[in-house]
Amino acid sequence: MSSACRSAVFVRPALLLAALLLAAPAAAEKTRRPSWGGFRSPTAQAPEALGSYTRGCLLGGVALPEAGPGFETIRRHRRRYFGHPALARFVTGYGRTLDALGLGPVLVGDLSQPRGGPMTSGHRSHQMGLDVDFWFTRPAGSRRSDAAFASLVDERRERIDPEVYRAHHAEMLRRAALDPAVARIFVGWVIKRELCRTVKGDRGWLRKIRPWWGHTRHFHVRLACPEGSPECLDQAAIPEGDGCGTESWFSKAEVARRKREARMGRPKKGPRPKKPPRPPLPARCRALVEG
Questions:
Q1: pTM over 0.70
Q2: What CATH class has 42-260?
């Protein structure tokens, strides 16, 4: 072997080691900056919801207990059982209400991550610790898949499934809506239509029941911004009235009609307009992962 070859044999491992040592600080720095889902605990700060429901974070959050009177949490391995103390108080109070009515325990799904923020799957909202999902039913077997929970709606026919839907489902929604801290409750549009058709007497609480995509197996409760959160952005106020009469906007027929109209009004040539970029997270939220 020539001297040049012998030098190459010994130099290359040294160069490789040097490259690895140079890369190590960068790798360690990346490890020290977890993603939103990587945080294991809330911040040690006064409770505060920052930003909006879809672009925000949570300071000083608390963990919801695994179970309590009238409620039971599931899928805790996802670490999405954290919320603003106001949300924890709502869930525990709501559970006690259902327990007194003989309707509990209700299964609690996702709240927020330990410090809120965007999730990699499942939700665009739930970012400020003010959103929580409740399941309408209790499956007999595994609870890991959404499909294990019965849908209150016959999706193919777009009507209530009488084999699943019961009067106590409306009472569960009514009791949640009566809480002054609740801003909105999202359900599938067919469920909203059924409530509009069947609820008698006081219908004021129906105003908070808002139709939205999906939400036929669970309902989504959203609290208004709590005191002590000056940088929390509430949604626009809900219009007056019971909110009935427009829920079919989410139906298959209406979606197909809007798509046809969009195609007719779109130029035949040229690129489609780009969606506007999503607004950035508040600076104090970005500091949690960038600082």
A1: yes
A2: alpha beta
